[in-house]
Each structure stands twice: as C-alpha cells, then as structure tokens.
Amino acid sequence: xxxxxxxxxxxxxxxxxxxxxxxxxxxxxxxxxxxxxxxxxxxxxxxxxxxxxxxxxxxxxxxxxxxxxxxxxxxxxxxxxxxxxxxxxxxxxxxxxxxxxxxxxxxxxxxxxxxxxxxxxxxxxxxxxxxxxxxxxxxxxxxxxxxxxxxxxxxxxxxxx
Amino acid sequence: xxxxxxxxxxxxxxxxxxxxxxxxxxxxxxxxxxxxxxxxxxxxxxxxxxxxxxxxxxxxxxxxxxxxxxxxxxxxxxxxxxxxxxxxxx
Lengths: 161, 90
What we know:
heterodimer; A: 161 residues; mainly alpha; globular; B: 90 residues; 5 helices; elongated; disordered C terminus
C-alpha cells in the first residue's frame, strides 16, 4: 500500500495542474484534488500494480470535477483568477501568454483533450479511457482545439497590426 | 498544397504527432520524405512547432509549486521529511 501511495504522491503535481487549468480558482482546484485523493485511497486495494496509475487517478479526478460542477451548478470554464505568471524572456513570455489566453477560450471538452494529450503527453488510448470516448473522438477534438487556438492567435496578430 | 497524400487537417495532425514524438519510425520516415519533396510542409512544421511547445508548457509553473499540506495529509505523508516540494511548506 505504501508503494501505491508513493506513486500517487508522484502524480500529485500533475493532478493539481489539470484541476487548476480547468477550474482556475487554486483553492477550489486543490479541494477537488483532495476529494480525488480520498476516493483513490478508498479504492487503492483494487488498483492493479503495474497498470496505468496516472490514467486511473486522472479518471477519478475528472469524475470528481464533474460531480462537483453539477453540485455547485457552476461552469468549469468560469475564470476566477488571472492566468499564472510567466517567467522567461519578453518574447517568450508573450507567446506563452497568448497560447494560455487561447486555451482559456476553448470549451471544456477541448481543454480536457489538450491537457491530457498535449500537456500530460498521454497516449491517445489512455486519454480516451480517461474521458470515456473513442480514440477517434480524442483525435478530432484535439485537432479542432489546435485549429481554434491557431485561429485565435491569427486573429490576435491581425489586431496587433 | 499538392503532391502529398494528406488533407490540410490530417497533415496538421501528422505534424503535431511528429512534433510530440508520437509517430512510429516508419511514419517518421514517411513524413520526412514528404518534407524533402514539399518545402511548404517544412514551413508548416515551423509554424506549428512554436504553438506545440507552448501547449506542452501550459501550467508548467504549477508543477513546481510546493504541495499543500492538506494534500500530503490526505496521503498520510505530512510528516514525511522527504515529501516532494518540501521547501516552501507553510
């Protein structure tokens, strides 16, 4: 059991990132991660060692997020905090902020595939399992999300001329 | 774009997979052959690379944050001296 808990500890930063990127309010995001942890620990005996702990935890986290959203009757897209500060050079910071802003405009189902595949680097099959959709749906949503981000950034460039 | 078998959309998907290292060796070779034969594909890759790298970096600063005590406590680890991200603990 201690080994499984150690594995969960290693995944905590990623779980926090996923929750924060969807919920924005850092306190609410961490409360959701805590709820996820409580459920994961309760179900820990049933987790098969050697299987994908990350996908298992993200599935629990995602269910927690959506149950909480229904209870609170608030959209996961509500922005309550400014985006996290970006370090680095001026130009690099601007590019990152632009993509962050573009990400913020995406509908939640597109944010999820971007987070799982592009940010977490999950395989399509694992992302599909977490989201409970076919692999083809993951790919088409991701493709659409990338298009929408590009369109946002292109429109941005036009405005800046 | 002409002279390759991808639609614009599926080319962009292939390029994103290429940039993320998801293609098999065979698929990599096929794409690289296409790049050699179609210079505009190289331009497309350069345009998409910056966006892909920015996406990969989303929320990276959150990963470096010290873990809140209540999360460590939920794992029964808040007294662990070697806990991840210990430095800034409140």
